Amino acid sequence: MNEMMKENGKPKQSMAELITCFKSSSDFVQFEHDAKELKFWISYIRTVVDPTLLHESILGPLLKEKWTSLLQLKEIVPIEEVIITIDTDVISEKLLEGYVIISMTEYGTPCALLRSTLNKARDISLPEVEFSVVGPKEAFVEALEFNINLIRKRIQVPQLRVKELQIGDLSKTKTAVLYIDNIADEENVNTIIQRLKNIHYDQIGDSGYVAQFISDNHNSPFPQVLDSERPDRVAAVLAEGKVAVVVDGSPQVLIGPTTLIEFFSSFEDYYLNWVLSSFFRLIRVFAVAFSILVTPVYVATLTFHYELIPKDLLSTLVTSRREIPLPPILEALFLELTIELLREAGARLPTKVGQTIGIVGGIVIGTASVEAGLTSNVLLIIVALAALASFTTPVYKMGNTIRLLRFPFLLFAQVYGLLGIVLCFCFLAAHLLRLTSLGRPFLVPIFPARARDLKDAIIRFPFSTLSKRPLALRTKKPDKFSSKQAKQKHDIDE
């Protein structure tokens, strides 16, 4: 067969051109084995090939056993995957993946491709972003196969489907879409697969790239797919009917479709009593509202509505601001930007140095700004509490969004006072109402209202009442279990 077959009007690369191209790289190895009975050529890229597997499972049998054709290699070599092909595109792709080429001549075809991929990955460690006191202590790593193994270990059913794709014109990043076939809605699955296929970008280095490409609204500061480093969380949402996207090289697995409420729910809530977990969720929701609104309310009140302040508190505020030369908005912006600088400095520096910068820097700068008369001690306390409240958000990307939202509210408070805060909230609500995640409403079950799904929203009800899967997911099996059987308790003596 002619090696110069045409594809899309362009001639395919010949084997000689392919080998010549790879020979320009120092890690490409090609040598001839010349024995009395047989002469053959071996080619591979040593940086992506497992040397132990190459010498023990490939070269050993090839030199010991007698063989005369490439077809006999499938019986001789104890390798799970042996491909015989004349397609140079396949040969090039497999060579880069860690396959070894066996050919009878230097530039001849057909060739036998033997899998000898070098798989190196760090050990499974503790979750760092979604750490929990109670529950499993495993986190995803950067290896695609390891991450799928962690999920399959928790969902041992044949209906768990894994659809692999390659995205990235240069990186050829392996990506897997996971879902449970008899539960997940086919529309959600097809939407994610189609959006992944539509990605045309050179380098895909992390799941963060993929999350931006498959999001419905690229201009929204709100994350529209949930990312998690916890295998237990991913397994649980797959059982609910969601779809997961695992990207090779990323320790974060994407989950969709998602809702706003999920970003304020820690998976540790399901390991605690429903009363405690509901209390903690309410604290998080209150903390987020406090973090966004407390500083704008301070600015609006002191600028336009000081008559609303009680007399006892007014005297305290007047005393604290008596020698402050800056208006409330500049005072607030100064402290807010200082907090953001300390956060960024602490996040980018090494762990031990970053902790020292965050604690010492906050104390020193806060005390110095009050003593210098640039800020009041009351506002310093308010900004510090707002920063502390923002840390209660369990998902890091949503925490970044909360940090950003404070600044528009501050500007609206300075221009229109409390009316400006209400106006900014209306803009925010309108944006959230229009926002979708993979075509599904982002505010469900609040809007559209789903009374059944509210049992696991801001307040988590007992497990015995959570017998239904989320209505918004339109799953094939809406029932998790029988609610009647869950409420029945049969002791051994009955």
TrEMBL record:
Family: Belongs to the GerABKA family.
Residue stretches spanning the membrane: 282-304, 354-372, 378-396, 408-433
Protein name as it appears in the record: Spore gernimation protein GerA
Keyword field: Membrane, Transmembrane, Transmembrane helix
Annotated Gene Ontology cellular component terms: plasma membrane
Localization per record: Cell membrane; Membrane
PANTHER family referenced in this protein's UniProt entry, alphabetically: LEUCINE ZIPPER PROTEIN 4, SPORE GERMINATION PROTEIN
Biological process, per Gene Ontology: spore germination
InterPro entries per the UniProt record, alphabetical: Spore_Ger, UPF0353/GerABKA_families
Recorded topology in the membrane: Multi-pass membrane protein
Superkingdom field: Bacteria
